[in-house]
Amino acid sequence: MTTVIKIGGSLEADPHRRRALLEAIADGAHGRCIVVPGGGTFANAVRAAQMRERFGDAEAHRRALDAMSDAAGIFRGIEPRLVQSLEPWTETAPARLRVWNPRALRAGHPDIPETWDVTSDSLALWLATQIRAERCVLVKSVDAPPGLDPAALARDGTVDAAFPGFAAAFEGAIEIWGPHRWVAVETRAAA
C-alpha cells in the first residue's frame, strides 16, 4: 500500500513532532510513503509579498510551489534518508523514502487551478490520485472535527477550498492526523 503523507507547514511550530514523523517514515513505520511538504512560513511570505507587490494569483501559486520545494529541502535536511523527487512515481528510490518536490508543476497543469484555493492539502490529494495511492494523510497542527465530509472541512477552514473537488477524484481513504487524534474523512467511497 502506498500512502501520500502531507506534513503541514504549521508543524514548523512543533519541530519535535515533525522530526519524529519524518524519522518514522524513513524507518518504514508507515509503509510505502511519499511525503508532500506544506509551504509553512515560506508560503506565508508569498502571501505577504503578493499583498505588498500586487502580483496575480498565478504568480503567487508558482511562488507557493517554490515554497513547498524549499520545505522539501528542509525535510531532507532533517531526515537525510529521505530522497527528494520531482516524480515520485518513478523507481529511482524506494517509495517509502521520497519527499515530493512540486517544482515541476511550476509550468502549470490543467487539473490544478493557480489560485490560493489550492494549497498543499489539495496538491497531496492530486498527487495521491495520480499515483493511485490507497491513502492520503494530512498531518495538521490542529485536530479535525470528526464526522465531516470534504466540503464541511473546507467550510470549517481545516482544508483549502479546492479540497472537496480533489477529494471527489480520489478513490482511496483520506485521514487527518492532528496532534491528539486522527480522523477518517467521510467521502463518497466511505459512505
Q: What features would you describe in this structure?
A:
The structure is a single chain. The chain is of the alpha/beta class and 191 residues long. Helices cover 39% and strands 16% of the residues. The chain is built from six helices and seven strands, in the order βαβααββαβααββ. The chain has helices at residues 15-27, 40-53, 57-78, 120-130, 150-156, 163-169; strands at residues 2-7, 32-37, 83-85, 98-100, 135-139, 173-177, 182-184. Helix 2 (40-53) runs antiparallel to helix 3, helix 4 packs parallel to helix 6 and helix 5 runs antiparallel to helix 6. The two termini are 22 Å apart.
Give a quick set of tags describing it.
Asp/Glu/Uridylate_kinase, seven-stranded mixed beta sheet, kinase, AceGlu_kinase-like_sf, 6 helices, transferase, kinase activity, alpha/beta, 191 residues
